[in-house]
Specification:
With 220 residues, the protein is an alpha/beta fold. It has 6 helices and 6 strands, in the order αβαβαββαβαβα. Strands 1-6-5-2-3-4 form a 6-stranded parallel β-sheet, with helices on both faces. Helix 1 packs across helix 2 and helix 5 runs parallel beside helix 6. The mean pLDDT is 95. The protein binds zinc ion. The site of zinc ion has 7 residues, from loops.
Length: 220
Amino acid sequence: MSIGSIWRSAAVDAVCTGEVSNAFCAVRPPGHHASDRGEHGFCFYNNVAIAARYAQKKHRLARVLIVDWDYHHGNGTEWAFYDDPTVLFFSTHALYAFPGTGFADKIGKGKGKGLNINVPLPRGADDKKILGAFKERLVPAANRFRPNLVLISAGFDSRKDDLLGDFTVTDAGFAELTKLVMSIAATYSRSRVVSILEGGYNTEGLALAVESHVKTLLSN
Ligand SMILES: [Zn+2]
């Protein structure tokens, strides 16, 4: 068992057995661009996708929601579950940025149709824009899907002043996004949330955003 697989399974196990209600995995490198086709965009293993499958196999959870607020589209995660009715993937991201995927008309296929939700946001997208996307698109989809576990691809390159992104989400904004995801988990998933770090390339800003996110998770 690799070190990578130990933390993923430990976080999912702790949350699924009720030892803790939520967990944050401060990991590097990120994972959401990686797929079974290989490494991509700094990512070697798709941590959130592996965590979802692990939770389904080990803890027999029927439905997993993955929420990805990284500045970049989680193309590896989309690829992993594109025709899968057991995983709802929701992503906000910049359409014009790497990796050039994440179009709104990519909604999944087969039994997974409607369970891949891409919400591309414009340059400079702020708290209001991203929260609006979560309220208008994620909440109704989650209400229909009724997840047993919620995973977050917690990328903070969507924060203001990031070196790779041009969104302007604040630390207070990330707290609001966290609260919204926690409310979904409280309704359907026994408050089970596993958050896994993705991007974030302004180290000081990343630390502040993570602090805001984790403080909010701890408020449960
Ligand atoms: Zn990113």
